[in-house]
Write a structure and sequence with these properties.
This protein has two domains: about 190 residues, Alpha-Beta Complex (Quinone Oxidoreductase, Chain A, domain 1), CATH 3.90.180.10; about 140 residues, Rossmann fold, CATH 3.40.50. Helix 3 crosses helix 4 and helix 3 crosses helix 10. Helix 4 links the parallel strand 9 and strand 10. It is globular, with a radius of gyration of 20 Å. About 30% of the residues lie in helices and about 25% in strands. The protein has about 350 residues and is of the alpha/beta class. The protein is built from eleven helices and 16 strands. Strands 3, 5, 6, 7, 8, 15 and 16 form a seven-stranded mixed sheet that branches. Strands 11-10-9-12-13-14 form a six-stranded parallel sheet, sandwiched between helices. The protein has a three-stranded antiparallel sheet with strand order 2-1-4, covered by helices on one side. The site of NADP nicotinamide-adenine-dinucleotide phosphate has 32 residues, from helix 1, helix 3 and helix 4. NADP nicotinamide-adenine-dinucleotide phosphate binds next to helix 1, helix 3 and helix 4.
Length: about 350
C-alpha cells in the first residue's frame, strides 16, 4: 500500500524530508480496526515530530494523526465498529500515523463519521476536537450544559485548529463569553465568524487590551500557543479561583507560585494521554467523538476545514508542513485520496 513517511529528520525544503513509499498492509488484531483512509488533516504534532535534527530514525516514520475513512476489517475483539462503517479519529502517537492507504487504530478512540460531512470535512475535526473538549470540559471543569454560562474565557490562538473548535464549544455548549486572540485581518474575521465575542491581538500586550474591553480578567484561559512567552502575564489576566489550561509544553519550568494568591488551578492537556497510557477510561474519546458527530450533524458545530491541498502524497504534505511551520494557519488543512 502507499504511504508517506521519512527516514531522516530534515528541513521540510529538503527533497527527502517526506517520501512517497510502499509498505506492507498491517492486519488488525484485538480491538483494532483496519481503516481505508480517505482523507487526513495535518497538525503541528506532525511538523514537531518531523522537525530537523541530528537524531536518526531507525525505521520508516509515518506521521498523520487525523483521519476519516471506511473500516476495511476489524480485529476479533472489536465491538463498536464493523467493516463498511465510516469513521473519523486522531489515533495514537505511539503507533504509525494515518498517512497511509490502510491504517490500524484501536476502536476505543474512534468515532462515527458525521453523516453530513465529507471525508475531508470530517478529517479536519478529531484531534483538535478531542483536545479542546478535554481541555475545557475535563481539565478546566467548564460545564458543557451551560451551568457556567456568562463566565469569561480567553482563548490564546483562536484561529488555529484547536482555537477554532474551542470557540464553538465554548459558545454553543458552555455559553461562555469568549475573547479569542488573533493577529491578522483574516484570522480576526475567522474567529468572529465562529462566534468570538471579542478579539485581542496576541502580538501586543494583553492586559491593556483586556482592560480596554472592560474585561481585565478571565475566569478561564485556554493557552494554545507559546506557553513560555505568554505564561508570565497570565497571573494578571486570570480571575480569582479561575482555571488555566495549556496544550503547548514549555521549554522552561512553569512557575506556579504567582497563581497561589488567587487560588488558580493550572493543568496541562495532552490529547494522546489516554491512548499513550491506555487509561481505563480510554473509550471516553470514542464517546466524545460520537457526541461531537451528533453536534456536527445537528449543525450546532461546524467543521473547521479550511483548505484541501489535494491528494495525499509527499508533495502536498510538504506544502501542509510548510504552512504549519509558518505559524499562521487558519482552521484546518486537509488532504484527500491516494
Ligand atoms: N497538548 C495537546 O494535546 C495538543 C493538541 C493539539 C495541539 N497542540 C499544540 O497546540 C498548538 C496549537 O495547535 P493548532 O493545531 O491550533 O495550531 P495551528 O492551527 O497551527 O495554529 C495556528 C494559529 O496560531 C496563531 N498564533 C501564531 N502565533 C501566536 C502566538 N504567539 N500566540 C497565540 N496564537 C498565535 C495564529 O494566529 P494569527 O495568524 O492570527 O497570528 C494561527 O491562527 C500547537 O503548538 C500544537 O502542537 C497540543
Amino acid at each position: 500500500m502507499k504511504a508517506v513517511g521519512f527516514y531522516k529528520y530534515l528541513p521540510i525544503e529538503h527533497p527527502e524530508s517526506l517520501l512517497d513509499v510502499e509498505v506492507e498492509t498491517p492486519q488488525p488484531s484485538g480491538r483494532d480496526l483496519l481503516v481505508e483512509v480517505k482523507a487526513i488533516s495535518v497538525n503541528p504534532v506532525d511538523t514537531k515530530r518531523r522537525a530537523a535534527g541530528p537524531r536518526l530514525a531507525n525505521a520508516l516514520k509515518v506521521l498523520g494523526w487525523d483521519a476519516a475513512g471506511v473500516v476495511a476489517a476489524a480485529g476479533p475483539e472489536a465491538e463498536l465498529f464493523k467493516p463498511g462503517d465510516k469513521v473519523y479519529y486522531a489515533g495514537s502517537n505511539q503507533r504509525p500515523g494515518a498517512n497511509s492507504q490502510l491504517h490500524l487504530v484501536d476502536e476505543r478512540i474512534v468515532g462515527t463519521k458525521p453523516d453530513n460531512l465529507s471525508f475531508a470535512e470530517a478529517a479536519a475535526m478529531p484531534l483538535t476536537t478531542i483536545t479542546a473538549w478535554e481541555a475545557m470540559f475535563e481539565r478546566m471543569g467548564i460545564s458543557k450544559s451551560g451551568t457556567h454560562a456568562g463566565r469569561r474565557l480567553l482563548i490564546l490562538g483562536g484561529a488555529g485548529g484547536v482555537g477554532s473548535i474551542a470557540i464553538q464549544l465554548a459558545k454553543k455548549l458552555a455559553r461562555l463569553t469568549v475573547i479569542a486572540s488573533a493577529s491578522r485581518p483574516d484570522s480576526i474575521a475567522w474567529v468572529k465568524g465562529l462566534g468570538a465575542d471579542a478579539v485581542v491581538d496576541h502580538t501586543q500586550p494583553l492586559p491593556e487590551q483586556m482592560a480596554a474591553l472592560g474585561a481585565p480578567e478571565a475566569d478561564y484561559i485556554f493557552c494554545c500557543n507559546d506557553t513560555d512567552r505568554i505564561f508570565p502575564v497570565l497571573p494578571r489576566l486570570i480571575a480569582p479561583q479561575g482555571r488555566i489550561c495549556s496544550i503547548v509544553r514549555t521549554l522552561r519550568p512553569v512557575d506556579l507560585a504567582p497563581l497561589q494568591e488567587k487560588s488558580v488551578g493550572f493543568s496541562w492537556e495532552g490529547m494522546f494521554t489516554r491512548s499513550t497510557f491506555r487509561t481505563p477510561d480510554m473509550q471516553a474519546q470514542h464517546n466524545l467523538l460520537e457526541d461531537a458527530a451528533g453536534l456536527l450533524e445537528a449543525g450546532t458545530l461546524v467543521t473547521t476545514f479550511r483548505d484541501n491541498l489535494g491528494m495525499i502524497c509527499a508533495a502536498t504534505l510538504k506544502q501542509a508542513h510548510q504552512r504549519i511551520e509558518h505559524g499562521h494557519v487558519i482552521g484546518k488543512l486537509v488532504l484527500e485520496g491516494f
